[in-house]
Amino acid sequence: MDHFIIQGGTPLSGELTISGAKNAALPILFAALLADSQSTFSNVPKLRDINTTEALLKELGAGVRWQDEQLLIDGGSVDKVLAPYDLVKQMRASVLALGPLLARFGQAQVSLPGGCAIGARPVDIHIQGMRRMGATIEVENGYINAHVEGRLQGAEIFMDTVSVGATENLLMAATLAQGKTVLENAAREPEISDLAKYLNNMGAKISGAGTSRIEVQGVERLQGCEHAILPDRIETGTFLVAAAMAKGDVLCKNTDYHSLEPVIEKLREANALVEVTDNSIYLDMRGRELKAVNIKTAPHPGFPTDMQAQFTALNVVANGSATITETIFENRFMHVPELQRMGANIRLEGNTAICGDSPKLTGARVMATDLRASASLILTGIIASGETRVDRIYHVDRGYEHIEDKLSALGANIKRVSE
Ligand SMILES: CC(=O)N[C@H]1[C@@H](OP(=O)(O)OP(=O)(O)OC[C@H]2O[C@@H](n3ccc(=O)[nH]c3=O)[C@H](O)[C@@H]2O)O[C@H](CO)[C@@H](O)[C@@H]1O
Ligand SMILES: C=C(OP(=O)(O)O)C(=O)O
pTM score > 0.90 for this model? Predict the structure, then answer.
């Protein structure tokens, strides 16, 4: 298994180009299953999760190929409706195959994704919503077995928890349903708006994406089209935090500050100078005092849980004490014991981490437990004195494109070691 070796204490300065968003690309690539013709995607990040998605789409019979940095997906040849355990277990987002397969073929068999390091992550809201649309769904032998006679039927669906994945799955299913679907208490993440943009370009009739009430007028057929994946706000935020922690400066290009407002607000509160243009964000922390900030995660437009671990690391390096409260996932503090091994002064109380001053951070051998936890360990390793080894970096490769190359270009001393 690969690991990273980081020699800490190097300054960070420079610019980088932000990749396409993993969390937009995944639902959008699955949405290509709704069409009987080819879609062409640009700005698709090169990630392990994208490789897994390609493998699953191929398994279902879709045409999948890269051409000149664009990913071409043809749903016309899909001839299977079974998403097997071996692929789904590698990536929870595989459950997003359910809505498109059921809506287009009237049946789907998708392995239950199971829990993961950050929480149990059930998919009951996805299943209940599809039942409301007329599907018969049984969960047995670890699989979600769904079918519907004829087409799904439009329905009014109130989701009692704000769920990004359930909103996406039901939105995709509703595009080919008969009649009108209303999704109430829908998630408002920018990735949902990007999915709706793609679906509308395919011929869907969706309004209200990006608000908590989405209306979908079902259509009989969708066709492939071109789509550029929106920039990754979490990758952007991670690099902004890295520069703030290292008291350096960074220019993130090909990004979108609108989707990052809660994060930028917190970076300014931490005393960073942040300047934005239409497609770039510049952060300068040189010669400034980094101050700890209180964080409470919430669904968009609140502070994103996917930036929580990175801000925990920021607070460890910053002056003063502050609290980090995680409200989305019940177990998203796996990075804390690893950060403590590097000298971090953090105390956990329920769903809150209390971060105090940590006068001495030293390199250590630490283990990545999930994607963003891994990022927090890498960023702390860049600040700590001496050598840090980060094990199990396959988690990082799920969601960060060439993170070691991008950090090295900014001045970090980080090397991938393949065993
Ligand atoms: C691929 C992708 O886009 N992943 C993101 C997506 O995950 P994902 O879509 O899995 O997260 P959700 O928004 O669904 O989860 C939010 C909360 O709802 C709960 N829940 C969800 C569905 C359900 O049927 N029942 C239920 O109880 C979850 O356990 C969690 O506590 O949104 C999360 C919250 O912003 C992000 O951290 C992930 O990076
Ligand atoms: C939790 C994340 O992703 P996933 O939902 O794919 O596990 C993430 O991107 O931080």
Answer: yes
